[in-house]
Amino acid sequence: MIIVIVALGGGVAGGYALSYQQAQQSVLKTSVPKELAPVIAAYETVTNNYYKSVNTTKLTDGAIKGMLATLDDPYSVYLQNNDKTNLDDTISASFGGIGATIQQNHDSLSIASILPDTPAKKAGMQVGDVLLKVNGKDVSKQTVSKAVAKIRGKIGTTVAVTVKRGSKQATFSMKRQKITVDTVTGQLASANKQVGVITISTFSEPTVKQFKATVKKLRKEGAKSFVLDLRQNPGGMMSAALSISSMFSKNGQTVLQVEDRNGAKEVYKAGKKLDDGFKVTEKTAVLIDGNSASASEITAAALHQNSNIPLVGEKSFGKGTVQNVGEMGSNKELKLTIAKWLTPNGTWINHKGLTPDIKVDYPAAAKITLINATQLKPGDKGSDVKSLQQMLTALKVGSVTVNSQYDDATQAAVKTFQQANKLDATGTADQDTLATLAQKLSAQLTKDDPMMKAAVDAVAK
Fold first, then answer.
1. Fewer Cβ in 10 A, N or C end of the chain?
2. The model's pTM
């Protein structure tokens, strides 16, 4: 790069100085903080002197984004172009989709939540996956609305979604299906029909109503105790978390404290105002993991500290801040962290999370590294082959040694798997084979769930 420094005469240099002076005077005549004088000067300088015409909207949007970037806070974000806050954004039931919600971060899009029993869940996508491509086309810098529009499509058609998880990339090929917007689902535990399992995928506007209906339904079906599954739940609306927390607490008990930057606290207490008089007094356990965050942690902490309800699973995420969303004009919003929240006993769990009473890790099969390749064949070596061998071993297909080499035993196991699943039995792990492997593994992990077993056992005692 060549940098050319040109000494300027009074004309241009003087113009820059005058612009700054004018900005200062303008600031003094208004309620705009004087610290913004350089920003106004820069804006006027660029708009008046740049050698090309300038999009002023992009300039102001860029200035706002720059301010937020200095906060080093991933939860303070400027949302534009119909990308309204999606704390409760779900794919419409009138479209074919994959059952995942997308959120806008500072410089990327990521999976915010995944609804149960949907293509995204079955394929093995996870909360936090960074969205890169849809059907091979880059969407990483697009708006949420444009990315969602590409994922949606006719029910029964296939969509390929490429994500990044850690340092690995993977493409999930999924058939779109009609997606319901239920954030709460419930069924009796397969191992004990007196235990009702309630899963909350995210906290949004309909969550409280759906939760009440689910509890009533399970009671009628014979549930005498409950497991509340908050795993992979990234949070959502604080009001929904407060209502559900109140249902499990005695009236008058503190369910949440919110503290502003001056130390002033707002205390929320259980009562009819929050829960409308609906209470859950049955024995309960709460499932959490590393992606249980924010509103999930509010709920888990309140149930644990107020009603001695055990937490089962892995340490939670540790998001102890509160965001507010303000309108910034047409189709623009500013989501800003405004306070921190404390558990009923005053603990701030930010970056610490909640520690489970009954610690249960995900099985090794749930931690298999993503496969980058779209095809693996005999003779290949490396981490992708290792992941393939681990998946085959977990599914008990063939007799494979995990050695990172696509050897004869691996080829034979792949061929066996393909035959069993009515795929072309070539012995080469093509994209369809890898996708089917991921789906089968996801189904097995759902069925053989040691965390769920521990939680059911805890409430059945």
1. N
2. 0.79
Query: What's the pLDDT score for residue 207?
Result: 93
Mean pLDDT of the region 421-447 = 92
Set 84, 319, 332, 415: catalytic member:
319
pLDDT score at 18: 46
3-state SS, one letter per residue, for the chain: CCCCCCCCCHHHHHHHHHHHHHHHHHHHCCCCCHHHHHHHHHHHHHHHHCCCCCCHHHHHHHHHHHHHHCCCCCCCEEECCCCCCCCCCCCCCCCEECCEEEEECCCCEEEEEECCCCHHHHHCCCCCCEEEEECCEECCCCCHHHHHHHHCECCCCEEEEEEEECCEEEEEEEECEECCCCCEEEEEECCEEEEEEEEECCECCCHHHHHHHHHHHHHHCCCCEEEEECCCCCCECHHHHHHHHHHCCCCCCEEEEEECCCCCEEEEECCHHHHCCCCCCCEEEEEECCCCCCHHHHHHHHHHHHHCCCEEECCCCCCCEEEEEEECCCCCEEEEEEEEEECCCCCCCCCCCCCCCEECCCCHHHHCCCCCCCCECCCCECHHHHHHHHHHHHCCCCCCCCCCECCHHHHHHHHHHHHHCCCCCCCCECHHHHHHHHHHHHHHHHHCCHHHHHHHHHHHC
239 catalytic per annotation = no
Q: What is the pLDDT of residue 103?
A: 85
| pLDDT, average across residues 109-117 | 88
Q: Tell me if residue 415 is catalytic.
A: no
CATH architecture for the domain at 72-181: Roll (2.30)
Domain range annotation of the chain: 17-71, 72-181, 184-323+338-359, 364-447
Q: Which of 201, 245, 292, 294 is catalytic?
A: 294
Determine what percent of the chain is predicted with pLDDT higher than 70: 90
Fold of 364-447: Muramoyl-pentapeptide Carboxypeptidase; domain 1 (1.10.101)
Residue of 257, 323, 387, 418 with catalytic role: 323
Can you give the pLDDT at residue 282?
Answer: 98
CATH topology of domain 184-323+338-359: 2-enoyl-CoA Hydratase; Chain A, domain 1 (3.90.226)
pLDDT given at position 95: 58
